[in-house]
Design goal:
This protein is α/β, with parallel strands linked by helices. It has a single domain, classed as Collagenase (Catalytic Domain). It is built from ten helices and four strands. A four-stranded mixed beta sheet has the order 1-2-4-3. Helix 6 crosses helix 8 and helix 9 crosses helix 10. The chain binds zinc ion. The site of zinc ion (ZN) has 6 residues, from helix 6 and helix 8.
């Protein structure tokens, strides 16, 4: 009788262990399958990723995968597919790629709209009628993005604009408590005053028609930072050529040159 109990116990344990093992295996397969799918999308759509060396590409993919595990993305009036998800995660990873332990603490949910939107929420600035927003007050932790602007930002004819990167730069700026164009967590103290001066000098140039930076940067310092960051990450060579001093300071801010 006792032997029978042992046999029964052994069989039950084996079944339980087999069940746990197969479940884990499935989860691991799921992760590597999605990583492979993400890699294809990154290669197709994200030039920042394509220009990295192999080690950094692997880290970029890890950061994208980890971002997508942390942040919920939902569509309103549109479906959310893997391309949308990878483009959103890439926009999050690009500005903080040189800060490997960065975590977007102030973001839990992203809502994707099909196109421009106009809602009566409280936001940090209204943008471009309106392609992207970072929530404030009861909308804290939320970001809203337009799907068409998201895709346009990563398309070959996207120019210097990238709405999603713009919104993530606002979130980075917000981490020190104020969206003021001075991301204190990225910018070492000795560079703060030179940066503020540089912003105002360049804003004057935009005002008088002597700069190719999108005049939306004139809205305030926070918008200036977000707009020049789009340009810096989207067209680094052109930005360096047209704005060498700004390029140098943004390089210090975001950790390193985006041009190898
Ligand atoms: Zn903005």
């Amino acid at each position: 009788m006792e032997i029978l109990s042992y046999v029964f116990f052994a069989i039950t344990m084996s079944i339980v262990l087999l069940f746990i093992w197969s479940k884990r295996k499935k989860q691991q397969d799921g992760v590597s399958e999605s990583s492979e799918a993400y890699k294809v999308i990154l290669n197709q759509h994200v030039s920042f990723y394509r220009e990295l060396n192999e080690v950094d590409r692997n880290r970029f993919l890890e950061e994208v995968t980890s971002f997508l595990k942390d942040v919920h993305i939902e569509g309103v009036g549109t479906e959310v597919d893997n391309v949308d998800r990878v483009l959103i995660a890439s926009s999050a990873v690009i500005p903080i790629f040189n800060f490997p332990y960065w975590h977007y603490k102030n973001l839990s949910n992203i809502i994707l709209y099909p196109d421009t939107f106009n809602k009566d929420f409280q936001f940090d600035g209204m943008h471009r009628n309106t392609l992207g927003m970072v929530g404030e007050g009861f909308m804290n932790g939320q970001m809203i993005l337009s799907k068409s602007a998201l895709h346009q930002g990563f398309s070959k004819n996207g120019g210097e604009n990238n709405t999603a990167i713009h919104e993530f730069v606002h979130l980075i700026d917000k981490r020190d408590g104020s969206v003021d164009g001075v991301p204190e967590l990225l910018l070492a103290r000795p560079y703060v005053i030179p940066w503020i001066k540089m912003m105002h000098t360049e804003m004057n140039k935009i005002k008088t028609g002597h700069s190719d930076i999108d005049p939306y940067a004139l809205t305030n310092e926070a918008e200036f930072l977000a707009v020049v960051s789009e340009y810096f990450f989207e067209k680094p060579d052109k930005f360096k050529q047209h704005h060498p001093e700004l390029y140098e300071l943004l390089t210090k801010m975001f950790g390193k040159s985006v041009i190898e």
